[in-house]
Fold this sequence. Notes:
The protein is of the alpha/beta class. It has one domain. It is 14% helix and 22% strand. The protein contains 3 helices and 7 strands, in the order βββαβαβββα. The protein has helices spanning 60-71, 88-91, 137-145; strands spanning 19-25, 43-44, 49-52, 80-82, 97-102, 111-117, 122-130. Strands 1, 2, 3, 4, 5, 6 and 7 form a 7-stranded mixed beta sheet that branches. Strand 3 (49-52), helix 1 (60-71) and strand 4 form a beta-alpha-beta unit. The longest helix has 12 residues, at 60-71. The protein is globular.
Amino acid sequence: MTPSPGENSFGTAAIVGLIILICIFGIGHADTVSSSKIKRLGQWEFPPSIEICLSAPVTKAKVIEAAQFWYDLGYKFGEIYPQRPNSSCDTGNMNGQILISNYVHKASMPGETILYINDQDQIKWAKIRLEQDISRILEHELGHALGWSHTSQVGHLMNPTLEDGGWDTTSIKNK
């Protein structure tokens, strides 16, 4: 379906309440974190599917493993699949899904997540960009794709640094 004049690919005449959030997982850069309290910025209306672009530095098995980590915390995902012809990896139309692709290296940042959250705090799409497959990075970035912000809590999965992060999931279980 082609949007009519004045509409975007989400079918709305105006981009009211558009929030693009870029969450970057860094190595030693915690200056954006001021509190140990973790905040959820938005939620998916339906479980998102996950598409893995050919350029992504992770395998489908690794993505399934990372999704299982979040599934064990009460989250659900739709289908997890590699890039298909004329897919979101090609077109950029990511509505309703999480896209995983490669990341052009920026000093000390092995991954980032970009979200579209509407004015009703619903996540409409997320794009995870990874530089390489490093333990805990994909799980951390999936946390952003599920709407979680950073926390300064040492040992927490959503801590923005590799040195201070860990596998603690306090306060991020899906109720």
